[in-house]
Amino acid sequence: MGAYILRRLLLIIPTLFGIMLINFTLTQFVPGGPIEQILARLEGGGDVFEGISGDRQDVELDMGGEDSGYLGARGLPPEFIEELEREFGFDKPAHVRFAQMMWNYIRFDFGESYFRSISVVDLVIEKMPVSITLGLWSTLIAYAISIPLGIRKAVRDGSTFDTWTSGLIIVAYAIPGFLFAILLLVLFAGGSYYQIFPLRGLTSDNWEELSLIGKIGDYFWHITLPVLASSISGFATLTLLTKNSFLDEIKKQYVITAKAKGLSEGGVLYGHVFRNAMLIVIAGFPSLFIGIFFGSSLIIETIFSLDGLGRLGFEAAVARDYPVIFGTLFAFGLVGLLVGILSDLMYVFVDPRIDFERREV
Fold first, then answer.
1. What domains are there in the chain, each with its CATH number?
2. In whole angstroms, what is the distance from residue 287 CA to residue 281 CA?
3. Helix (H), strand (E) at residue 342
4. pLDDT in tens, 18-67
5. Helical pair 212-250 and 160-174, crossing angle rounded to 10 deg
6. Which positions, given as ranges, span the membrane (predicted)?
7. 3-class DSSP state for residue 46?
8. Measured at the alpha carbon of residue 109, what is the angle toward residues 104 and 110, in degrees to the nearest 5?
């Protein structure tokens, strides 16, 4: 097992390098870089993207009418623009900037945000509690409900219970997370009906004044609606995955043999079927957690006014804050790859008969 883990760890290097190289290359062709953003703001032109779709004549820059290459540079001295380029490192060729960036990231030096005057690490740590809350609790709730429900549906396949729950699950899966979040706000957060849960934030304004029990209660009071909204789609997918996995195992010959030997239904289900059927469910844990952690957080955070990694990534992309974009991409890409290895270790933990040493990576 040690050799397999070592091979997987070594495979992380070219994979992560490829991810960073592709994304860095793509940014070289995207208009509206950080220099253009700053120049547009200095000229009072608002967002630099307003000029991208305008008439090309509006891009004619400088006192002499020449195009300096930046949409917001009208009337600014060339020396000032060159100083900005040196400060942000854009006076160097792209391959040199990429090599320097990767060398810093290998040493876990992610630099400082262009526009926030704070290091990328501190910025991520500041936003992390919101995303951890959404990702962790949504995943735990999805597994706590979906696995027992999926097993029950598999055992009672074709029954009225299975039919009705399948209908509810399909409806839940079809509802977009943001629409469900708005519905929860309207019903339970001071919309047209009840004022039961708070409208925004992760904690109350008087958080520091509360007792330990009060802080725990206030925390769960605030996260109830966001967690419900972010877990609905994962709950539906995981339930059907669990049911289909157990149905596939229940129909196999070893189950029929075990029942013929007189074992009880519970003994067969949890003594033999469970271990085999849970493999595919466990394999889906990393992708489900990462998906909730990074994917759906932006809309949920925006609706519930939560300042987490989703909003941070969106704002960094709009502002072309490259240290935040690439720093978080490198860190979270590394985490995702390591979680993939953890998933394989969970396979072995559930079923020690699996031997990855005999397989090629």
1. 31-106 (no CATH), 120-358 (1.10.3720.10)
2. 11
3. helix 322-350
4. 999 998 888 877 777 777 777 776 666 554 444 433 443 343 333 344 44
5. 120
6. 9-30, 130-151, 163-189, 219-242, 279-304, 324-350
7. coil
8. 100
pLDDT of residue 295: 58
CA-CA distance, 132 to 265, in Å (whole number)?
A: 39
Q: What is the pLDDT of residues 329-348, one digit of tens each?
A: 888 888 778 877 877 777 77
Cα–Cα distance for residue pair 36/73, rounded to 1 Å = 8
Structure tokens at 4: 């397999």
Helix then strand count (H, E) for the chain reads: 15, 0
d(CA 218, CA 206): 10
- State the burial class of residue 46 (Cβ atoms within 10 Å of its Cβ: 0-12, 13-18, 19+): exposed
Tokens representing 295?
Answer: 């994917």
pLDDT over threshold 80, residue 315: yes
Q: According to DSSP H, which parts of 189-308 are helical? A: 212-250, 253-260, 265-268, 274-283, 285-290, 297-303
Q: Is 289 exposed, middle or buried (0-12, 13-18, 19+ CB in 10 A)?
A: buried
Average pLDDT, the chain: 77
pLDDT of residue 353: 66
Q: Rounded to whole angstroms, what are the CA distances from 171 to 132, 162, 238, 299?
A: 27, 14, 14, 20
Mean pLDDT of 279-298: 66
Residue 289 has pLDDT above 70, yes or no: no
Confidence band of 103 (pLDDT split at 50, 70, 90): very high
For 70, the 3-state DSSP assignment is: coil
Spatial distance between the Cα atoms of 203 and 132, rounded to a whole number of angstroms: 15
Q: Which of 22-36, 92-106, 163-177 has the highest mean pLDDT?
A: 92-106
Of 284, 175, 271, residue with least CA distance to 240: 284
Specify the 3-state DSSP secondary structure of 236. Answer: helix
